## 1
Amino acid sequence: MNKIMKAVSVAASASLLLSLGACGGGRSDSAASGDAKDAKDMTIGLSMPTKSLERWNKDGANLKSKLEKAGYKVILSYADNKTSQQTSDIENMANKGANIVVVAAIDGTAVGPAVEKAKDSGAKIIAYDRLIMNTQDVDYYATFDLEKVGALQGQYIIDKLGLKDGKKGPFNIEVFSGSPDDNNAKLFFKGAWDLLQPYFKSGVLKSLSKHGGGVSANFALDKWQSIGVQNWDAAKAQTDMESILDSAYSHGEKLDAVLTPNDAIAVGVVNAIGTKRPDLKAGSANWPVLTGQDCDAPNVTQIAQGKQAMSVFKDVNKLADAVYDMVTTLAKGEKVTDATGKYNNGSIDVPTKLLDPVVVTKDNLDLLKTSGFYSEADYNKLVG
Ligand code: BGC
């Protein structure tokens, strides 16, 4: 860029900043109030990322059935993890006159322009579970405390390896983050890494592989994408874990733990251990501590079998309830008052309703039944 172009571009960004400042945080004010409407006169769009992961099927179905029972018209779509598909799903909702569009983004940044179009057509926008980035056009966000999810995973590994009790190891750990295009993945990783990094610094935790360029004491948070698994894909996690095991654990080296940020990745890692290190036996002392989140069906079985130590339970019924409450409040033309948290999306602080995630292990696995997350019959099948 030559000097003149640079000056023009600096001036342009400055005026952009000023004009953003002048609108006082964007168009989200329109979320505050409006005309009350009857449920039957309202259409709610629900844009979900994919059917390929169990949780999103539950999320979509829960919310749709609650809203339909209350009389709302619902358009529910799944975008097959394709950002272009999600864009056209949301545009379609806007064209059909959706009054509120709820979006669980595939890629929080890529979805911005579609959301802006929906907002222009008069819809309110609720980000569901994953934040929509770099736009003013998000009215509310509902999610589980994201850093806390990662902190629960990191803390679990610390407790299980006895690090707080002074065990010196050194312990070998491999570290994954989630999908590089998912803002949640960064925050999950931050929650875990803030707790684990001091043990890398003191030499108690070590990562033997060069996965993602290698994770060592000075691994910077902003490098999290280098150890990510695109689309949280179990098969990709398996391939990555197989190369980790081939490159650094093929001569019987011990593997004490793997930070697996969600259940799909934990499935991939368990499969990789099965193919590359069949000498490791689930439930015995040589099996690594594996983490997860979502309490997906295969993982309930993995936990019961001792293959996965824990999963973070995010009761998506409660998330559906929270978003349902937001929708009904907005339908009454009122302001949502319980979104007291906030997440910055690079453009504005989005008012956020934060829910609490809970650790599930073999010891309290039946919470998944008593909470109604699984029916008794399904739960019994899963735990065998
Ligand atoms: C969600 C997790 C989920 C992951 C993959 C994340 O954004 O918060 O619950 O495991 O996406 O679907």
## 2
Amino acid sequence: MFESVAEKLKIAKKIVFVTGAGISQESGIPTFRGKDGLWRKYDPMKLATIDAFYDDPKLVWEWYEDRRKNILAAKPNLGHVAIADLEKYKDVRVLTQNIDGLHQRAGSSKVYELHGSIIKIKCTVCDFKKEITTSFSKVPPMCKCGNMLRPDVVWFGESLPQDVWTEAIIQARSCDVMVIAGTSLAVSPANTLPLYAKQNNAVLIEVNPEVTQMSNAIDLSIRNTSANSLPNMVSIFEEN
Ligand code: NAD
């Protein structure tokens, strides 16, 4: 662990993590844009937009059912666990673009799901919402009001849940260290969160084996995977 990263983490009052698909890659969940990325197999515009959903609700539902099965069978990895363990020493918030719930399952208690959750569904018309962990025998499932149900996730072109986004900006603006782990920062508005942190003169640390479009604005880049690097951030505090 870089001396300077350790120093910054030790004096930090609040550490905010911005995470993406890459942090779950080592749990066996494919990313969108990595070499094993989901998009390599599917056309992104065919599966994660509202138009695609109304064009072919069965196909979109089958994709999410398949992803939910894979995600529920996956386990949090050392990266997720390290972020949860850091809560023993610091005020930690997790702003995640992931819909897999692995941060919560690893024990993180303050997680903001910017893009919703794969275990949540909602009605396309009324305000019915529900958590599910099983599969449906017939898709698309219908709501009691007679309309189709949909995954409660944010599709490309849709806006983020206002309350979650407002809270995410508050957290980004009030941290003194932001760790950006496992995200290409290609998706907005999540990719503006580091700019809010900079408004508070926060130190930006990036954990990613690859360069991202914000790497040149990052203070400290760790070119490694999250499962390899994040546990070192916890051992800084365990050594004392
Ligand atoms: P992305 O695929 O665009 O970027 C993934 C990033 O993670 C890449 O920069 C890659 O270099 C990096 N990476 C790959 N393996 C890594 C590892 N082991 N450790 C650290 N970094 C690693 O994904 P994104 O930036 O999250 O954004 C795109 C969208 O993907 C988001 O809307 C998100 O909701 C969605 N998504 C979520 C999941 C999930 O819930 N797990 C899975 C796939 C896609």
